[in-house]
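Lab meeting notes turned into a lecture example. A postdoc, R.K., suggested we walk through two folding results consecutively so the class can see how the record format repeats. The first protein's sequence and structure tokens come next.
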Amino acid sequence: MADVSARGRSYRYVGPAGLKAAVQPGDGGRRIGSAVDFGSWVVEQSAAELAEPFTFVVGVDGVLRLAPRRSEHVACAGGGMVLSAGEISFMREADRWTVSEVSNQSTGYCPDVSSWAEVARALDVVGLQRPSGFTHEIVFRRCPDCQEHNVVREDDFVCVFCGSDLPAAWNVDPTA
């Protein structure tokens, strides 16, 4: 279930059950809780890897976790709940690393755009310069009629599967 705590709403995995079932003990993205953690992680990445976005989650502990782009968010989270999830890119600017792009693009967790606050906090702890919000916001909604998950485009709150109206407020997790 989604839970709203002092840290913000947490999101449970709502994607295909088989992907969550495939998560093994020890799976999970690299924990990045400090500038030292990020420095150790980034030097292990090749130029080709750094040219692509990475999968990220912010765990319910508020800590950023990173995995290669083609990783499933649920695996990056070790199967657990998250405060946000999406894709993130880094670039070297002068003598420091910065976040060049970041989105909430995760069809496994479908986090609301309001989860940016948790991403910002996690990046600030690490000391990474960042944008003021998601550089690409994804609006997720669940259709109340057919129950399918939708990505809302251009403020068109209509289900692409059955044509029903979608709610204005986030509602992806039916137990929230």
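The second example is placed directly after the first for contrast:
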Amino acid sequence: MTNATKIVITGCSGRMGQMLIKTVLENDKTELSGVVERSGHDWVGRDVGEAMGGQALGVTVSDDISEALKGADVVIDFTAPQATIQFAKAAAEAGVAHVIGTTGFSDAEIEALAEPAQETAIVRAGNMSLGVNLLTQLTKKVAAALDEDYDIEIVEAHHHHKVDAPSGTALMLGEAAAEGRGVDLGEVSDRGRDGITGARKKGDIGFAVVRGGDIVGEHEVMFAAAGERIVLRHMATDRAIFSRGAIKAAIWAAKQKPGAYDMLDVLGL
């Protein structure tokens, strides 16, 4: 596969990491160049195919991101914020594009990605599915069309293993709604309600979170006014939609100039 995009996967032992590996192997436009796990993990030093319970793939699990990036075009990363920042620095030094599906970033951590983006292409998205990115655009348009008489509530549900809340997708939808209304999400976000909270503040964008079972991902944006509700909803039933989106982003990012991008750029939306 001479012209294949050579891809490195971080966090390769996780559910998403393994899904990404399978998707790379199934795509005739991509090649698995390397895989990375944290130091001390029992997969380090093993063939990743055998570690996953299958046949050898000829790719050894490494705990050295700089070594793994040699000869690669793109690294795909669904890990944790602090790890992602370190991977971004290593990718920038290696001149390798970086696709980030990690969520749960603080504002400071997002800012830390700005410097690496001056050296390489970084695609960061809270959700990489086509449906969710279309939902984001719809949310922005509806929010722009309706005034503050329509309360905006974002409800998201995920499996019980998810560690951050609200989800990156919910925050992405919140940003879209805020942008549509011409306001700063940080100033109108309402993320916690417990006890006697008082009446809802007009103009706020509310978030509600559900965690349970094996829910892949469900997101709903509600515009509620007196006498009517408009509801935009997306339900993911297969985690593969995220890995397919990430692979699409990787192939696209490998051809881009340094800069910060998102899935709307990848999809031409």
